[in-house]
Amino acid sequence: MTRALVHLRRAMHWARHAGPARLVLVAAAILGIVAAVRPELLTSQDPNAINAHAILVGPSWSHWLGTDEEGSDVLARIIYGTRLDLLLAVGSAGIAGLVGFPLGALAGYRGGVTDYVLQSFAISTLAFPLILFAVLIVASFGASLLTLIGILAFLFTAQVFTVARAQAKALREREFITAATVSGIRTTHLLRRHLFPNARGPVLVLLPQLMATAIIAEAGLSYLGLGVQPPSITWGTILEASENYYQQQPYYAVAAGLVVTVSAGLLMFAGDVISESLDPRRRRAAAAWPPPRASTAPSGARPAPATKAAGPPSPTSPTRGAASLSPVIAGPGGEGGGSS
Amino acid sequence: MSGTVGGLVPSESEASSGPLFYVDQLSVTFQKRGRLSAGTGAVKAVDGVSFEMGVGECLGLVGESGSGKSSIARAMVRVIPSRGKFVFRGVDFFGLKGEALRVARREIQMIFQNPQGSLDPRQTARQVVREPLVEHGLLAVGQVEARVEELMDQVGFNWALADRYAHQLSGGQCQRLAIARSLGLGAELLICDEPTSALDVSVQAQIINLLKDLQQTNRTSYVFISHNLAVVRQLATKVAVMYRGRIVESAPVAELFGAPKHPYTLELLGYEALELTSAIGPARPGPGEDLTIAGLSSSGMTGCSFAPRCPYAEERCTREAPLPERVTDLHMVECHRWRFIEGADRTEGDDGAVASH
To answer: CA angle at residue B135 from B134 to B138, to 5 degrees?
Structure first.
C-alpha cells in the first residue's frame, strides 16, 4: 500500500519534470500497450460483429468512427488491430537489435576479413528493394505474420549492423578504448562496459524508427495483399478494405490511415528522446528515469572528511561556512571545478 | 638504413640497478592501402629506434609533429603493430600473449594527450579509478573504495567531483584521474604522450609537478613525449630528439641542452628560444618541405633525411645516411657533420634557424 504510494509519488515527480514531449510519448505507449494486451478495456464493441443494419454508416455515439462494409465498428477494429502491428514492430526491430547490434559492434571493433564479408553482405541486403524482396519471400513461404516479421527483421538487421559497425569503428580509435586496452581490461569487459554502451546511442534512435518502418511496411504489404491475411486484423488490412468505400464513409479510410501515420510519427520521435535520456552528456537531470527519490541526497554531495578540507569548497555544498568565503583558487587542486 | 645494435643511450643508473627496459630496433610501418586497391606503399613512421632506461629515469622524446613520437608510445603499449624488441624487466613484452599480456600491461601504462578523451564518457570519476583495480583483482572487495580514495588523494583529485562524468570535469582534473588510474595498477613505466599540451599553462605546471613528485616517491619511470622543450627540460633525465622516425640525437638532459650537436636539435632549440612565449607548436616547415605523413615515404630515400633542411648539409649528406656516432659515452648523434659544427652554441643555433627561413 505505502509502496504503491511511493511509486505513485515518484511517477508524479517524474511527470512534473518530464516535459510535454515525454508525457505524450509515455501516454501513447501506455495506450498502445493496453490496446495490444487488453483491447476490451478500450472498447465494448466486438471488432468482428456483423451488422447488416449499419453498413458504412458515419460516426455516431455507438460507433465513434462509424462502421465498415460489414457493419463492424471501425474504432474497435483499429484497437484490436494494434496487437499484431505492435507484435510485428517490436518483433522485427527487436530481433534486428539483438542480432545486428552485437554483430555490428564486434565486426567494427575487430575489423578484418569477417568484418569485410559481413559488411559487404549487409550493404547488398540494403541495396535490395523492400517490396520486391517481400514479394519474393511471400511467394515462397506464404503470407503470414511470421513471414512478415522474418522479412523485416532480416532487412532491419542489416541496417542495425551497419550503424553499430560504424559506431564501433569510430570508437575503436578513441583514446578511452585504447586506455582500457592498455590498462589490461579483458576484451569481453571492454566490449560490454565501454564499447557497447557508447555505441548503442544511434542504434536506440534507429530502433523506434525501424518499428515505424515496420508499421508502414505492414500497411503497404497488406495493401498489396502480401501481409497478414483476414480474419486477422491489422491496420494494414483495415486500410486495404477501406479503399473502396472512402466516398461513402470517409472516416473509415481516414482513421485507418491516420493511426498508421501518427504511430509511425510518434515512434520516429521517440528514438531521439530515448537516446537523450540514456546519454549522460545530454541527460536533463530531472527527466531521467528512474527519477531520484526525494529522500536521497543529490549525488556528488559526498560529505568530505575534515582532513580533506584543504581542497576548494565543494560546488554542491556551498553552505560550509568559512570555506565558501575563500576564493576557489585556494588549495592544491586549484584548477578544480567542472566546466559545466 | 642502419645495422646498429641497441643500447645507444646507456642508462645513467646502469651500475646501480640495471636497465628497467630496453627497446631495440623498433619500427612502425603504416600501410597505405584501400579495401579495393592493392598495396600502394608504406610509410615508415618509426625506423629502427633503440633506447634503454633505468628505474626512476625519464626519457624526453622530442621532435616535430609526424616525427614518430606517438607511434613509439603506441607501439610500446601494443595498440599498433610494430617490429623490433621491447624487453621490460627481462621479459619480452612484444612476445606476450593473452592473459600473460593482460597481466603484464599493469606495469606499462600510458597517459594521453587529450585528458577528456582518455576517459569513458559514461564512467564517473570514481568508476574510472576503480575499474582497473577490480579488473586485475589487486585488492579485496572491501578495500577497493578506500584505495580509490587514496589514489585520488595522491594525485590531488578533488573529492567533491568523484561522482562526476568526464565532461563535467576540467582538463586538469581529468588528467589527474588518468594518472590515478595508472597508479592504481602500480605501473613502473608511464608513457606520457604529450600529457600537458591540451592544458592551460598553470595547470600544465601542476601536472608536471605531480609527475615529478611521483618520480621521486614511487620511482616511476617515464617516457615523456612532448614538443615543449621547456617541459622536457624540467622533467627528463635524458632526451632523445626524433626526426622522421629516427632518433637523431640523444644525450643526458644537461648535455643535450648545453651542447647540442645535431643541426636539427640546434634548430629546435633556436626555435624554442624565439617562440618561448607562445605555446610551442610543431616546428615550422622549411622551404618546400612536406611535413605531412604522406611526405614521409622514406623507402626510396637515400642520404640523411634532414639534409634538405640542413644549413650545414654537404654533398655527402644527400648520398649517404649517417650512422650513429658517440660524442661522449652517453651522447649519441646521427650526423656526418657534427664535428664541423661542434663549436655551435646556443646563439649560433638561433642564427642557423633564422638563416634557413
So the answer is: 55
pTM of the model: 0.76
Rounded to a whole number of angstroms, the distance from the CA of B232 to the nearest CA of chain A is 22
Which of B79, B120, B130, B152 to mutate against chain A (most A CBs within 10 Å)? B120
Is A5 within the bounds of a domain?
no
Q: Is residue A66 part of a domain?
A: no
Residue A152's domain spans which residues? 84-230+263-287
* Sign of the dihedral defined by the CA atoms of residues B86, B87, B92, B93, in that order: negative
On whether the CB atoms of residues B124 and B134 are closer than 8 A, the answer is: no
Under 8 Å between Cβ of B341 and B270: no
CB pairs under 8 A between A and B: 128
- Indicate whether A324 belongs to any domain: no
Helical H runs in A128-249?
Answer: 130-141, 145-172, 175-182, 187-189, 196-223, 235-242
Task: Look up the ipTM and state it.
Answer: 0.78
Residue A312 lies in a domain: no
Q: Cell 517524474 appears where?
A: A14
Per residue in B133-152, pLDDT (tens digit) is 999 988 888 889 999 999 99
For chain A, what is the domain count?
1
pLDDT digits (tens, 9 = 90+) for B315-338: 888 888 888 888 888 899 988 888
Residues in chain B within 8 Å Cβ distance of A335: 170, 172-173, 200, 202-203, 206
The residue among B170, B222, B227 whose CA lies nearest residue B199 is B170
C-alpha cell at B237: 633525465
- Candidate from A184, A304, A314 with C-beta closest to B135: A184
Cis? peptide before A290, omega within 30° of 0 = yes
Give the number of other CB atoms < 10 A from CB of residue B350: 18
Which CATH number belongs to the domain containing residue A196 in this structure? 1.10.3720.10
The alpha-carbon radius of gyration of chain B (Å, integer) is 21
